[in-house]
Amino acid sequence: MTDLILFGVFPYVAVALAVAVGSYRYVIDRYSWSSHSSQFLESRLLFWGSVPWHYAILLILLAHLLAVLFPSGWGVLLGRPVRLYFLEVSGLALGLCTVIAIVLLMARRLTDARLAAVTTKIDWLVLGLLLLQVATGVYIAFTLRWGGVWYVHTATPWLRSLLTFQPEVQYLAVLPTVVKVHAFNAFLLVALLPFSRLVHALSVPLGYLARPYQVVIWYRGKTSL
Q1: b/e burial code for range 2-27 (CB count within 10 A of at least 16 → b)
Q2: Domains delineated in the chain
Q3: pLDDT tens figures, 133-155
């Protein structure tokens, strides 16, 4: 029953919250769809935390997504040991990169009083859950080897069953606790998306593609009339 609630019911609740509350927030307070940049306060730790985080997490999410969308092709891709080894090493390296990056971002907010003052409780909660997510991911990659292979036979059918509204939680029920925590925490982050500044991850600035170019006119050195 617990597995059914956690992996058969909660994913739908999380997505429903993300869509409903996120849409409401976008309509009522569109300006809040932002990460509320604090770069003007400090940039060194921000650079070494934010840039590696974004690149590494995007590659990790892309690998997860490809395995769900194209399980057969993913299996063929990893059919040779060299490619499987490369994926394992690359995934572990990217995972470690995300752990270090999120720790730097958290340390930045802890050590700067100005940033701490504008960091809300929900921000700390999301940062903590993000750290938990990447840390469990690294632990899984390090202790449960060949995840690129067994992921296709466990998490992929579970996620695909959610899309067909026929959740098959037995695929998750047989996995170690750390994998269950990793899977549940992922949907918990989805549920928290519309309540935090993490919602900016859903913002795609397509308007910039059609926006007129900006003309900047400098008046420096000119005397006023």
Answers
A1: eeeebbbebbeebeebbeebbeebee
A2: 2-210 (1.20.950.20)
A3: 999 999 999 999 888 899 999 99
